[in-house]
Amino acid sequence: MERTFCMLKPGVLQRRIVGDVLTRIERKGLRVCAIKLMQIPRALCEQHYAEHEGRPFFPSLIEYMVSGPVIAMVIEGHDAISTLRALCGPTNPAEASPGTIRGDYGVVTQKNIIHASDGPESAAREIDLFFDAAEIVEYADGNQSWIG
Ligand code: CMP
């Protein structure tokens, strides 16, 4: 079992596609173990995307990410990091195949619907940035033996 950080970006709530995106994650066999609806404070957003600081798109990325509410989550499951990245598709929705979340719901790179950690270190760092340990819920479910 592995955990990863996932964020539904501004616009997803307004477009009322939260359920559609979450269904894809759940249907695959991953599960939510922490979730919160929030407006990201600018400083937290800049910390989250610190690796992109200095890139030409950084200022507009931050403006966009603080422009509306997001849904931050911890997602758990077998190979959760790579599985969730595969469900999302490539960063640029124009290159994402239909059937992936970005391929089905977005058209431009900046507004690519969903963020998912790209490796174990970023998953741990990002989970820690957005959640206290007490907000991550451990629970058993009868489905796991059928999934992986
Ligand atoms: P995400 O997976 O959240 O990680 C970094 C984000 O920066 C990425 O999704 C995009 O939203 C954004 N991004 C990356 N490259 C570009 C780009 N060339 N132009 C605009 N936004 C970008």
- Ligands bound, unique: adenosine-3',5'-cyclic-monophosphate
| Overall pLDDT score | 97
CATH architecture term = 2-Layer Sandwich
What number of domains? 1
Say what the CATH topology is.
Alpha-Beta Plaits
The total count of helices amounts to: 7
CA gyration radius, whole angstroms: 15 Å
Number of strands: 4
Beta-strand percent range: 15-25%
- Across the major sheet, the strand order is 2-3-1-4
* Main sheet attributes: strand count, strand direction, barrel closure: 4 strands, antiparallel
CATH superfamily (homologous) name = Nucleoside diphosphate kinase-like domain
CATH class type: Alpha Beta
> Structural class of the secondary elements?
alpha+beta
Measured between the Cα atoms of the first and last residue, the distance is 9 Å
Shape annotation: globular
Residue runs with pLDDT of under 50 for 5 or more positions: none
Order of helices and strands: EHEHHEHHEHH
What is the helix fraction of residues, given as a range?
25-40%
Describe the structure.
By secondary structure, the chain is α+β, with helices and mostly antiparallel strands. It has a single domain (2-133), classed as Alpha-Beta Plaits, CATH 3.30.70.141. The chain is built from 7 helices and 4 strands. The chain has helices at 18-28, 42-48, 58-65, 80-88, 101-105, 120-130, 144-147; strands at 2-8, 31-38, 70-77, 114-116. Strands 2-3-1-4 form a 4-stranded antiparallel β-sheet. The N and C termini lie close together (9 Å). The model has no long low-confidence stretch (mean pLDDT 97). The protein binds adenosine-3',5'-cyclic-monophosphate.
